[in-house]
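Let's inspect one such protein example.
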Amino acid sequence: MLPRSDATPTLNRAMRDNPPSQAVVPGGFLEALPRESATRLLAEAIAIDVPAGSIVYREDEAPRVIVVVSGLLRVFLHAPDGRQLTVRYARPGDVAGLPLVLGGPAPLSIEALMPSSLVALRPDTLRSLLGVDARVARACVDVLTRQFREVVDDLAGQAFQTVGQRLARHLLDLAQPADHLLVVTASQQQLADAVGSVREVVARVLREFRDEGLVRTGRDRIVITDAARLSRLVAGGLEGTG
């Protein structure tokens, strides 16, 4: 079980002053719903801002449906020995926790990788809408299908790719534009958790990436200097590394 933390948010506050429409990110889950359904869900939703490192959901808690307004979440598994494995990332507009609400409990937890603004929808309301509006059901099926493909891709990567390939893929997934650069704000331990390895191995591979001119490294900050070569590495087009 994950340790409790003071940084863990409790999703029991009323909606803040932000109008509900701000939670509807273009191309996101809420925009894909019929307008009347999205309005009903938002009318009963709760909004919260969380700092980086917050555990938004633990596997032993009641299921939640969380829509990302801004920031970045990761959905992950953890082993009894403390190791973790990232299953997928949730970005603005994405929804996390949908399989938990529709399919029942699962050994998944959700963490905010950066300061994030979230909206938690009422699971009971979403379930009731599924029963009366086929358009809501179709939107949920589309989301679950896409997430299933992401999980399959990740499992294939864990099974068939080297640590270097997995690390390159996660660096590209996590990179954010900043001052005309692609920057990853993550510690070596966070990256090890993401790829299902240990910090020492990730540190070694990052040194190899740096020596090859693929990245520049700093304290909890990595600048991608050759995204094209990292992409080729993920696809198996480069020799060595991990």
Observations:
- Confidence is low (pLDDT under 50) at residues 1-19.
- The domain at 161-234 is CATH 1.10.10.10 (Arc Repressor Mutant, subunit A).
- DSSP finds nine helices and twelve strands in the chain.
